[in-house]
């Protein structure tokens, strides 16, 4: 992921905070940026009825998981650095999503 891609994804993260329907695309873009075939953003301890969500970080109990299979290359320091920097923005944007958007509009899946 280059700086231009990083800036674009960061912008999309904040757009998703105001428009939750964008979260699936944000998660997909993060996975692609990390050269990973799979990713998951969810609240594992809260169901949708409890205010949780699942889009296929430092907001308890939110988790972002990025997966690579056994035949994929291992994650390296550059991958970890990218995700560490993105997590700050994800946490801020998800906080906005959870506090500003009415519950029923953020949970369609």
Can you walk through the features of this model?
This protein is mainly alpha-helical. The protein has one domain (3-106). It has four helices and three strands; from the N terminus they run H-H-E-E-E-H-H. It has helices at 3-18, 23-33, 77-100, 103-106, and strands at 38-42, 54-55, 63-67. A three-stranded antiparallel β-sheet has the order 2-1-3, covered by helices on one side. Helix 1 (3-18) runs antiparallel to helix 2. The longest helix has 24 residues, at 77-100. The protein starts with a helix and ends with a helix. Residues 103-109 have low confidence and may be disordered.
Highlighted features:
109 residues, disordered C terminus, 50% helix, mainly alpha
How many structural domains can be distinguished in the coordinates?
1
- Average pLDDT rating: 80
Q: Low-confidence stretches at least 5 residues in length (pLDDT < 50)?
A: 103-109
What fraction strand? Answer: 5-15%
Blueprint (SSEs and pairs):
Layout: H1 3-18, H2 23-33, E1 38-42, E2 54-55, E3 63-67, H3 77-100, H4 103-106
Antiparallel strand pairs: 1-2, 1-3
Short overview:
The protein has 109 residues and is mainly alpha-helical. It has one domain. It is built from 4 helices and 3 strands.
């Amino acid at each position: 992921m280059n700086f231009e891609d990083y800036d674009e994804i960061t912008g999309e993260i904040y757009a998703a905070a105001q428009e939750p329907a964008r979260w699936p695309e944000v998660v997909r873009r993060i996975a692609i940026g990390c050269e990973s075939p799979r990713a998951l953003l969810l609240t594992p301890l809260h169901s949708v009825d409890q205010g949780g969500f699942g889009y296929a970080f430092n907001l308890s109990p939110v988790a972002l998981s990025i997966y690579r299979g056994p035949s994929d290359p291992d994650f390296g320091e550059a991958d970890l650095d990218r995700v560490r920097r993105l997590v700050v923005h994800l946490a801020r944007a998800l906080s906005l999503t959870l506090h500003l958007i009415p519950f029923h509009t953020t949970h369609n899946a």
